[in-house]
Amino acid sequence: MNKIRVMLVDDQMLLREGLKTIIDLQDDMEVVCEAENGKTAVNKISGCSPDVILMDIQMPVMNGVEATSIIKKENPQVPIIILTTFDDDEYIIEALSNGADGYLLKDIDALHLVRAIQDAYNGVLMMPARIAAKLAARIAGNQGAGKRMSSAINESNQGLTDREKEIALLVGQNFSNRQIARKLFLSEGTVKNYISEIYSKLGTSNREQAAMLINQMYNRK
Predict the structure, then answer these.
(1) Which of 104, 126, 148 is the endpoint of a domain?
(2) Which neighbouring-strand residues pair with 206?
């Protein structure tokens, strides 16, 4: 079985080691090279031929935004997932504008990390609605970018299962967990688990913000 070849780009050695441990434990993926900054990544990529790149944003010498732009010009087929602490939305949007295919929070759990790498390898764009909306504002008026943005929002919608969409729409209507449970004949615990997963996919932990994003995704007022 061919493994997914992963490149790690981050100036924090401890983080790289942690990510490498998780990835190398998987049967279907392996870390093939590492870089401590964007310039090193640009220089190494041809030698290790990764299938997926995990790219930090704030690094010395060359940051992840510039590295993403350079790598994508020469290797447009290689998915790049931005790593972020979630405090730098502008950098994320700039990286996405330069070809990045999605982003992960640095505190992501192992299960979601593995799934994200598999999704990127299979061409699934990872972009929560809140970032998609900001990117749309940044690239408004650019027809080509507009098509990319439309695709990104569609992918965000497709990231929810049918049941999650059903529950998300009720969250958007300000239903409580108990009301959702009664309406869909589920336990409150099950609803809570679904909503936790919805939050994760939308990139938020706030119910009010989640409701706003859901209504935006489904064009509801």
Answers:
(1) 126
(2) none
Measured between alpha carbons, how far is 100 from 105 in angstroms, rounded to an integer?
A: 15
Amino acid symbol at 11:
D
Burial per residue of 139-152, b for 16 or more beta-carbon CB atoms within 10 angstroms, e otherwise: beeeeebeebbeeb
Which of 152, 108, 111 lies closest to 130, judged by CA? 152
**Cβ count within 10 A of residue 160:** 20
Which of 100, 126, 152 terminates a domain? The answer is 126
Q: Domain containing 191: what range?
A: 129-221
| The pLDDT value given to residue 137 | 65
Cβ-Cβ contacts under 8 Å for 71 (sequence gap 6 or more):
41, 42, 45, 53, 78, 80
| Number of compact structural domains in the chain | 2
Dihedral angle of Cα 128, 129, 130, 133, to the nearest 10 degrees: 130
- 99 and 15, same structural domain? yes
Radius of gyration of the chain (CA): 18
119 and 191 share a domain? no
Phi-psi sector, 37: left (phi>0), alpha (psi -120 to 50), beta: beta
Residues 6+ apart with CB under 8 A from 138: 93, 97
pLDDT score of 150: 46
Specify whether 136 is located in the same domain as 191: yes
Residues 120 and 139 in one domain: no
pLDDT at 31 over 50: yes
Question: Average per-residue pLDDT in the chain?
Answer: 83
Cα separation, 212 vs 1, whole angstroms: 43
